[in-house]
Amino acid sequence: MNGQASMKIGTRGSPLALWQANEVKRRLHQAHPELPDEAVEVVVITTTGDRIRDRALASIGGKGLFTKEIEEALAAGEIDMAVHSMKDMPTVLPDGMEICCLLPREDPRDAFICNVAEGIAGLPHGAVVGTASLRRQAQVLHRRPDLKVITFRGNVATRLEKLDRGEVAATFLANAGLIRLQRTERITALIEPEEMLPAVAQGAVGVEIRSDDEATRERLAALHDTETEYAVTAERAMLAALDGSCRTPIAGLGLRQADGELWLRAEIVMPDGSDRRATERRGPVSDAFRMGDDAGQQLKRDAGPAFLAEIL
Ligand SMILES: NCc1[nH]cc(CCC(=O)O)c1CC(=O)O
């Protein structure tokens, strides 16, 4: 930071994004108590993804719908850092940008929210489930081919209202988001990874900077969580090997085991639930990237061109 200029944190304006940006601000002040409150400023940036409300994001295609405008502001020096849900981050960042900091990961599990059943298995035959996530759609249809999945967008509050109006029997949301927005009272059940493997990097918040901005990098170093880095590195390497994104039916979760090894599980599922490929790896955390890349390559080989054409 030079002179009197404040550090600017760029973020989307959704309640969840704002919470995450303010959490980075809070942690910056905690790590650097000498920083006055006004030295760190949260700047809201509207993205293409925020403007599109009426269509399934998956049908629009293109990566980085929620990151493009924010990265442009970062490149232009209008902001000094961008706070993102790592789940929504493309695997390839623009030249000159990097994620230098990951906050300690929140619970990566999905939450099942429903007014008529205790879990997926208890849903009535043919029940309607709402989700905007191709991954959740594919996974729930794989388990329950009789269910009907409809596209379900909007922020957390909007989705819960639609559920209460009976538009759908159930929906899924990331537990991490519900915890951050203090809406966990709406959770019917948390879904174990064995039942529904979460999205790559779900629950992880990352901070992106310009690679040449040493001052901001140093400030953020105190906030970085290496445990989160191991898991997210393996998961994102797997996603990158498949050339996937948060809009593809790909799931992955790295967990540190009691013996210190990293355990990575990964799966790809046909959007209609009709087919699934899964693999796992165990190894030292120093191999996180290689394990993820290897798992992704294997899923690619196992699936073959026809399967891949359906999911990418
Ligand atoms: N794609 C939207 C999105 N991006 C991150 C989260 C939740 C928070 C997180 O995973 O860190 C959500 C909402 C959801 O999937 O329920």
Characterize the structure shown:
- The protein has 312 residues and is of the alpha/beta class.
- It folds into 3 domains: 7-103 and 204-224, 3-Layer(aba) Sandwich (D-Maltodextrin-Binding Protein, domain 2); 110-191, D-Maltodextrin-Binding Protein, domain 2 (3-Layer(aba) Sandwich); 238-311, Double Stranded RNA Binding Domain (2-Layer Sandwich).
- Helices cover 34% and strands 22% of the residues.
- It is built from 10 helices and 13 strands.
- The protein has helices at residues 15-31, 48-51, 57-60, 68-75, 134-143, 156-164, 175-180, 214-221, 226-241, 288-311; strands at 7-11, 40-44, 81-85, 97-102, 110-114, 128-130, 148-150, 170-174, 189-191, 205-210, 250-256, 262-269, 276-283.
- The strands form 3 sheets. It has a 5-stranded mixed sheet with strand order 2-1-3-10-4, with helices on both faces. It has a 5-stranded mixed sheet with strand order 7-6-8-5-9, with helices on both faces. It has a 3-stranded antiparallel sheet with strand order 11-12-13.
- Helix 9 (226-241) packs parallel to helix 10 (288-311).
- It is globular, with a radius of gyration of 19 Å.
- It starts with 6 loop residues before the first strand and ends with a helix.
- The relative contact order is 0.15.
- The model has no long low-confidence stretch (mean pLDDT 93).
- The structure holds the ligand NCc1[nH]cc(CCC(=O)O)c1CC(=O)O.
- The ligand NCc1[nH]cc(CCC(=O)O)c1CC(=O)O binds next to strand 8 and helix 7.
- Monomer.
- Residues 231-300 form the Porphobilinogen deaminase C-terminal domain.
- Pathway: Porphyrin-containing compound metabolism; protoporphyrin-IX biosynthesis; coproporphyrinogen-III from 5-aminolevulinate: step 2/4.
- Its EC number is 2.5.1.61.
- The modification S-(dipyrrolylmethanemethyl)cysteine is found at residue 246.
